[in-house]
Task: inverse folding
């Protein structure tokens, strides 16, 4: 089995990624999730894993953001939209795509830490891949103004060094 892993411009590759989002997160499913109604940022880059003959089997979005941790500027690498086609799970695709996303952030050289938000049932997956809980508070922008973002739990990954406590202001929409 051969797979292709590409890291593409987020906007240009959205048409490729959208059918996978629609399949995994149709609107009737999303409206029951804890993050229903939240407005999220668009990914700047996308890791796309394609297999033969299925096509796109897995997606990971990458967001780069200057955030504030306890008022101090830091470079966060956001990870979001981690999705594998339902019939292609437990084959390592999301692990491969996450590794490619982290490697992309490391290669850029300017990222202090990676940050993602996840629902409780996915926590063992991320903890098993080196992610640690961020035990502080997260603030983010929404169209109606700044909110405390606590709909889904934050997890961090050391690139240089990740904060584990305190206050992170995402200085923009969440991801
Ligand atoms: C969470 C999600 C992305 C994981 O995708 P995936 O491609 O199945 O992930 P992986 O295959 O890399 O790993 C999943 C599990 O399968 C195991 N696995 C990987 N390859 C395997 C193989 N060849 N045979 C059996 N198990 C395997 C992994 O070890 C892992 O188990 P572990 O966490 O106990 O170690 C997927 O379940 C999904 O799309 N869920 C719905 C959307 C969602 O909730 N996304 C997360 C948003 S934060």
Result:
């Amino acid at each position: 089995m051969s797979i292709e892993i590409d890291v593409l411009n987020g906007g240009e590759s959205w048409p490729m990624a959208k059918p996978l989002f629609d399949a995994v997160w149709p609107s009737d499913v999303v409206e029951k999730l804890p993050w229903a109604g939240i407005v999220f940022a668009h990914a700047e880059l996308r890791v796309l894993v394609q297999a033969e003959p299925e096509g796109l089997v897995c997606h990971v979005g990458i967001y780069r953001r200057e955030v504030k941790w306890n008022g101090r500027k830091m470079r966060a690498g956001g990870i979001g939209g981690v999705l594998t086609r339902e019939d292609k799970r437990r084959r390592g695709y999301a692990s491969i795509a996450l590794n490619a996303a982290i490697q992309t952030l490391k290669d850029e050289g300017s990222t202090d830490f990676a940050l993602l938000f996840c629902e409780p049932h996915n926590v063992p997956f991320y903890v098993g891949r080196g992610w640690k809980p961020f035990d502080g508070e997260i603030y983010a922008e929404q169209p109606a103004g700044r909110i405390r973002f606590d709909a889904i739990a934050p997890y961090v990954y050391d690139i240089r060094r990740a904060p584990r406590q305190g206050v992170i202001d995402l200085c923009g929409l969440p991801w």
Notes: Helices lie at 10-24, 27-30, 93-108, 123-127. The beta strands are 3-9, 45-51, 55-69, 72-84, 113-118, 132-133, 137-142, 145-148, 153-158, 167-169.
